[in-house]
Amino acid sequence: MKVLKRIFDLYLHGSMHVAMSVLALVLMTNHMFNLPFNFHMAGFAYCGTMFSYNFMKYESWYRFKRPISTNLKIITALSAVAFVAAGVFFLMLKRQTQITGIIFFGLTALYTVPVFPKRPNLRNLSGIKVYIVALCWAGVTTLMPIVEVGNEIVTDVILKFCQRFLLVLILILIFEIIDLSEDDPMLRTIPQIIGVKMTKLLNLILLLPFYFLEFFKSTVDNMQLMVNVVLVVATALFTIYATPNRSKYYTLFWVESIPIFWLGLVVLVSYL
Length: 272
Fold this sequence. Notes:
It comes from Flavobacterium rhizophilum. Keywords: Membrane, Transmembrane, Transmembrane helix. This is Prenyltransferase. The chain crosses the membrane at residues 7-29, 35-53, 74-93, 99-116, 128-146, 158-178, 190-213, 225-242, 249-271. Helix 2 (16-32) runs parallel beside helix 12, helix 3 (39-63) packs antiparallel against helix 4 and helix 10 runs antiparallel to helix 12 (258-270). This protein has helices at 2-13, 16-32, 39-63, 70-92, 95-112, 129-148, 155-178, 190-194, 196-212, 222-240, 249-254, 258-270. By secondary structure, it is mainly α. 73% of the residues lie in helices and 0% in strands.
C-alpha cells in the first residue's frame, strides 16, 4: 500500500493529473466542434501542462537551494522529459497554433519568472493569479485546437472560450478556499478578501452564466445541456463542502478530476 500511495502522490504532485484535466478539455473541444483527434495537439497540451505546473511549483526549490527529496528528483526528471516532448509536439503544430501557444506560454512565464524589481512575478500581484491561470487554460484547450485545424474564431468558439474560462475560475476558487490557511496574505486571494462564505456564494453564482452560455450557441445540444446540469451540480457540491481544513487530495485529485468527469459524461451520453 505504501508503494501505491507513493506512486499516487507522485502522479498528483508531478502534475500528471492536472495535465490529464487539460487534455480532457482539449478533447471536449474536439467533441463540441467535431474536430479530428490531433496527436500533436494532445501531446503538447499534456506535456506542456505537466512541465509548466511543475516549473511553477518547484523552480523556487532550486533557485533558493532548498533540500531536494527523492520524489522531487523524480518529478524533475519527468518534467525534463515532458519539456522535450512538448517542444517536439510544438514543432509539429501549424505556425498559427505555435504563435497562439507562445502567447499563453508568455503569460505562464510572466506568472512564474521574476520580472519586476519589487514583485517576484505576476503571481504575487494581488488577485491576478486566478485570471491568468483561467485565461491560459481557456486559450490552450479552446483556441489552440480550433486554430490548428484552420477554423475561424466564430461566436460559438468565443462562447466556449468564455465558458471554459468560467469553469477554470470556479475550480481555482475551490483551490483557494482549501489553501486559505497556507497562502501568503500578500497574495490577496479572493477568499482572503471576501471570506470563505462569500467565495462559495460567488462560485455558485458563476455557475449560472457557465451553464446558460450554452443557450447562446448557434445550435443548442439538449444532451450537452443535460450533461452540463450534472457537471454544475457536482461542482456546486464540491464548492459547498470545501473548507480550509480539507485534505489536499480534495482538490489535487477530486476537484481536478471535474474536467475528466465532464469528458466521461459526454462520452457516456454519446453512446446512449
